[in-house]
Structures are given as structure tokens and as C-alpha cells.
Amino acid sequence: MSMRDKARLLIAQEAARIMAEEGVNDYLPAKNKAAARLGIANSRSLPRNEEIDQALKEYHRLYRAETQPLHIIHMRKIALEAMRFLEGFSPRLIGGALDGSAGKYSPIILYVYPETPEDIIKKLMEARIPFEEKSFSFNLGHNRVATYPALDFFVDGIRVELVTLPPELKGQRINRREKSVPGGSLQDVEKLINDISPLGTQIT
């Protein structure tokens, strides 16, 4: 392994620890914080987001083998409840709650496809769910970024982030890091929950 590859691995591992333990949810700040702590100044040594995802899974396997499966099940159940509530907007679960890499500070991220963001706002207001308006950015590659409105609310202390996308993007791969399309549908999440035992093991 080259020196640069070793540096990338060390940064990925430290960034994963920072995201898991310190509540940093964004990749770039976690990478920069990890590199600074390790005294690695070469920006070319920064790992890809996928490398941090892999390091996160390894971190949870090593240090949270007993609690992580139950945490993911809990997040998926909250996600499923939210998806049923928002079923009319074709909700789709993405990120760590779907792939199992989510830590205790990670949000549940749902894509929803209303005709307008106001449709989602009205739905939350009618249900008297307090929320905060934010934005969500996608890295499209080649220094291109797309930003869409987002709405945040909390369930059992876990942040649920609704990314409001136009209906014409339904079923499309938006973020280049997404591994499956469409994936994460209501039925997919139901199956994930039903196929896992209370101890977090796959049922065969």
C-alpha cells in the first residue's frame, strides 16, 4: 500500500469515528477534521465518501456489534411510519438507515416527490408536526451541485429529513453515490424489517 493510500485509509477511519461519535453528519467537514487531527495536509489524500461509508460499517461492526442492529431496526421502523404517512408522495429511503451504516447522530433521509414543496408543508401542518425548513444539496460530480428544499422534524429524538424533489425526478439516480435505483421504497423497507429478527440477524 502506498503512503497516499495509507493516508486515505487513516483519514477514512478517523472521519468515520468522528461521524459516529461526534455528531458530524457531513462528509467533507468530517474528512477535514480527521486530516487536521492526523496532521495530513495533502488534500489529494482525502478519501471518497464511499470509503468513509465502508469505514463506518467496519467501525460499527467492531465497536457496536450488539447495539447497531437494534439501532438500525429502530430507525427503519421510524422511517416506515413516516413513509406510510407520506405514501402519496412516493417516499424513498436513502442513506445510512437503508444500508445499515447510520450512527446515533445520523438522520433518516427520505426523498419525497410532491407537486410543490408546499404540499408537504401542508401535510405536516395538518398533522401538527413541528418542522424546520432547510435545504439539501447533491454532489453531481465535476464540481456541480444541485440544491432542493428540505423539511426536518424529529421522532423519538431522531431527525427525519424530507428532501422535496420534483415529480419528474422520481425513480432517477440523483446522487452519484446512490447504489440502487429506485431502491428504498416503502415495500423495500417493509421487507428489510420483516427479514430481520429482533436480534438483528438475517432470517434464512
Task: Note the main attributes of this structure.
globular, alpha+beta, 2 domains, Beta Polymerase, domain 2, 18% strand, 7 helices, 204 residues, disordered C terminus, 5-stranded mixed beta sheet, single chain
Give structural notes.
This protein has helices spanning 3-21, 27-38, 49-63, 68-85, 96-99, 117-126, 186-194, and strands at 92-94, 108-112, 132-141, 144-155, 158-164. With 204 residues, the protein is of the alpha+beta class. It folds into 2 domains: 3-63, no CATH class; 68-194, Beta Polymerase, domain 2 (2-Layer Sandwich). The chain is globular, with a radius of gyration of 18 Å. The protein starts with a helix and ends in a 10-residue tail after the last helix. The relative contact order is 0.13.
Helix and strand arrangement:
Blueprint: H1 3-21, H2 27-38, H3 49-63, H4 68-85, E1 92-94, H5 96-99, E2 108-112, H6 117-126, E3 132-141, E4 144-155, E5 158-164, H7 186-194
Parallel strand pairs: 2-5
Antiparallel strand pairs: 1-2, 3-4, 4-5
Largest sheet entry: 5 strands, mixed
CATH superfamily membership of the largest domain, which one?
Beta Polymerase, domain 2
The gyration radius over C-alpha positions equals: 18 Å
Strands of the widest sheet, in order across it, are 1-2-5-4-3
Q: How would you briefly describe this protein structure?
A:
By secondary structure, the chain is α+β, with helices and mostly antiparallel strands. It has 7 helices and 5 strands. α1 (3-21) packs across α2 (27-38) and α4 packs antiparallel against α7.
